[in-house]
């Protein structure tokens, strides 16, 4: 593998970051030569040597990784996809007291075979158990007969461990470090061939929290699984303000419930103390306590008027209302007629019979027979009512 710190400008293909182990290349060449020898006997036998050679080549595939070296992060030890994140008991071999958060990762047979250290620190324990040849494929992580690799890492901030499970046929899991070694984050501590399962365990009481979810694709040595700088309490307690809690939905609330909410939300006017009401001192000469009293005294009057006060005011207005308001005034009255009406004397109430007798002349008289005389009589009566006769006499 090329040096990760080497400048990309000196590489012919800077986009090509993968490679193969030396033992993988040797195994592929050996299988290819075997296929050629078999083809000399019978040509179809060539594939019996070539196909295993391709499998050996993919099983030893590696890649360059750039690992974040911050002390408050825990990175993924391998490539794969997150299957589940749950709290469970850690295996006895990891020696973790209490419950732990398990992040299960599944890797395909063609994924990179490097196993990286998830944190910087020391290896407290590392153990590799060989599997049974009959367990060729690791269909389930808990299946029997699989080859298993377990390791525990610790530093001053956190303690973590992982368990790899792969098929038992051939050297599928190989360690490259020993217990007691101090390693940097991202260092290759083992090799896993042809995929399998990886369970990462972090004690539940550890600081921080998991930041990956099922379905997330991981890059070994680069993707962050656990962030120690985040508070675990943030996931248990909802925040004080959220878009869901800031606006309340009243679609299922009845009208009476809304009325009670509005009634409780209205603030009742507070009664000011007597010393505040009677105090008329200027604000400049007042003490801080009197200043607060002045502010309370100058506050706006509440818009809602109590029912008893409103009824008392209406009764007082009704008593002071003048009697002439009940009289109706003609809507359209010429100015000259209005002046004449205002100057006319008040003769008191006149009955209907008297008014008829005053307006009509006696029966059989000449005025009833002559229309002109009757109209003149009517004009005189109108002048008398208007007060013109009295003016002429004076």
Spans where pLDDT lies below 50 across 5 or more residues: 233-269, 275-283, 324-329
Sheet with the most strands, sense and barrel status: 8 strands, antiparallel
Query: What's the pLDDT, averaged over the residues?
Result: 75
Helix content: 25-40%
- Corresponding CATH architecture of the domain at 66-234: Distorted Sandwich
Spatially, the strands of the biggest sheet line up as 11-7-8-9-13-5-4-15
Judged by helices, strands and strand pairing, the structural class is: alpha+beta
Categorize the overall geometry.
elongated
Tell me the span between the first and last alpha carbons.
Answer: 139 Å
Strand/helix succession: EHHEEEEEEEEEEEEEEEHHHHHHHHHHH
Pfam families: PS_Dcarbxylase (PF02666)
Organism: Henriciella barbarensis
InterPro entries: PS_Dcarbxylase (IPR003817), PSD-A (IPR033175)
Transmembrane segments: 20-39
Task: Tell me what you see in this structure.
This protein has 394 residues and is an alpha+beta fold. Among the domains are: 22-59; 66-234, Glucose Permease (Domain IIA) (Distorted Sandwich). The protein is built from 13 helices and 16 strands. The chain has helices spanning 22-41, 46-59, 233-236, 243-246, 255-265, 274-278, 288-297, 307-320, 335-343, 352-359, 366-369, 371-386, 388-393; strands at 18-20, 61-63, 73-75, 80-89, 99-107, 114-116, 121-129, 147-154, 159-166, 173-175, 182-183, 188-192, 196-203, 209-210, 217-218, 224-227. It has an 8-stranded antiparallel sheet, with no helix packed on it. The radius of gyration is 53 Å and the shape is elongated.
